[in-house]
Target: Acyl-CoA thioesterase
Amino acid sequence: MFTSIKEIEIRYAETDQMGVVYHANYVVWLELGRSQLITDLGYSFIEVEEKGYVSPVMNVNINYKAALRYGEPAFVKTWVKSQDKLRTVYAYEVLHEDGTVAATATTEHIIVKKENFRPVSFKKINEEWFNKYIEIAEQQA
Model:
């Protein structure tokens, strides 16, 4: 299983009155992890968007385990959990520097035409990238 790691510098503005990272910031970090995975594999979503497609998030699920605080580094570990004809599910672990899991998460995405938001098969957009996701997915189709 191919994984990617993205280091996150926790900024003061990302914390709440209790001094811990505000829960909504994790969603932004998941996107950073997902982008890092795509880059590490040698692809770019800009190319997909230039062809007239976007990849909306259909579902986000986050389970918070251990608080992260300002001044600590965080690490987002990302991998492809599953890939089928239309849906990509990414999985994540947000980690403390010592490897303690701060949160686990999944996001589900589809590819749609930008003009009408109709779903399109990922394989039709970029067969090489689709096949790479099938190859590295945690759960084989």
In short: Residues 76 and 94 are 5 Å apart (CA to CA). Residues 4-136 form a domain with the Thiol Ester Dehydrase; Chain A fold (CATH 3.10.129.10).
